[in-house]
Design a protein that fits this description.
This protein has 273 residues and is of the alpha/beta class. It contains 10 helices and 8 strands. Strands 1, 2, 3, 4, 5, 6, 7 and 8 form an 8-stranded mixed β-sheet that branches.
């Protein structure tokens, strides 16, 4: 029976997925296929490239300088980027350089495991799945958060973040023939939404409804012979906040998120054994 890891989006909160990967590795659970979106496409690419060492490699990446530097810069620098571009706060080049430097392969064909990541086509207003060709452009397209990063051009078409069309793409794993699916996420689906109380919360709540709706629909429509395990993040319950749109965070918070998700997921997996 084919096993899939599905890695969802969530900006800097994607560090939770690193803890989950560590727990899965220690439990001896090996994937046959990787599916990712947004920051889950970054994490998923490393798993597909080197499944045996991915958790350790990603732990160093998330707590090191490379990922932080890809989204570094002071307020004036971000303001200058926005003034020049009129559409985004960060240039894509630092993130692209980090991925090219850190990923051990450059093309989907050279990955150790099949890997599928999704991005949202601007011209067609629909999802595009990447599973062949150059790896870094596909991952960049999948994690191009609107307003934070520019749209990414691939083959003459422009793409935004895959979370706009598939926040946690369980359905894709089913289409690929997976019978056992482990869902790695950032903790947001574990807590219910509440009505917004401030103006800035309105957009976040609306976005959360949109991103969760498809996931819940796909979970409700699962074939009876498919097993899905939604790993716990170990995070505290709180209302949606701006952290879900960020790709930068304090190293201490990143480390805490990794450790919490590791402990919660390790406990969950131990109960399955």
């Amino acid at each position: 029976m084919k096993t899939a890891f599905v890695l969802g989006g969530g900006g800097v909160l994607g560090a939770h997925e690193v803890g989950m990967l560590r727990a899965l590795s220690e439990a001896g659970i090996v994937p046959d296929v990787i599916v990712g979106t947004s920051v889950g496409a970054i994490n998923g690419a490393f798993v597909a490239a080197d499944p045996d060492d991915a958790a350790q490699r990603l732990g160093g990446l998330w707590q090191g300088a490379d990922l932080q530097q890809a989204f570094s810069g002071n307020i004036l620098g971000r303001a200058a980027t926005l003034a020049r571009s009129r559409t985004h706060l960060h240039a894509i080049e630092p993130l692209a350089a980090m991925l090219e430097r850190a990923l051990p392969v450059a093309d989907f064909a050279d990955l150790a495991l099949p890997f599928h990541c999704v991005a949202a086509s601007i011209e067609r207003a629909s999802a595009r799945w990447f599973s062949s060709g150059p790896l870094v452009p596909a991952v960049l397209a999948s994690c191009a958060v609107p307003g934070l990063l520019p749209p990414i051009e691939v083959d003459g078409e422009h793409y935004f973040d895959g979370g706009l069309v598939h926040s946690i793409p369980v359905g894709r794993a089913v289409e690929l023939g997976a019978g056992i699916i482990y869902v790695l996420h950032v903790g947001r689906v574990e807590r219910p939404l509440a009505p917004p109380r401030r103006l800035w919360e309105v957009g976040l709540v609306a976005f959360e409804i949109a991103r969760r709706h498809r996931f819940h629909e796909e979970m409700a429509a699962l074939p009876p012979d498919v097993q899905v395990h939604v790993l716990p993040s170990g995070g505290t319950q709180r209302a949606p906040d701006l952290s879900q749109l960020r790709y930068r965070g304090e190293k201490t918070n990143v480390g805490v998120n990794i450790e919490r998700a590791y402990k919660a997921s390790a406990s969950y997996l131990a109960e399955l054994a």
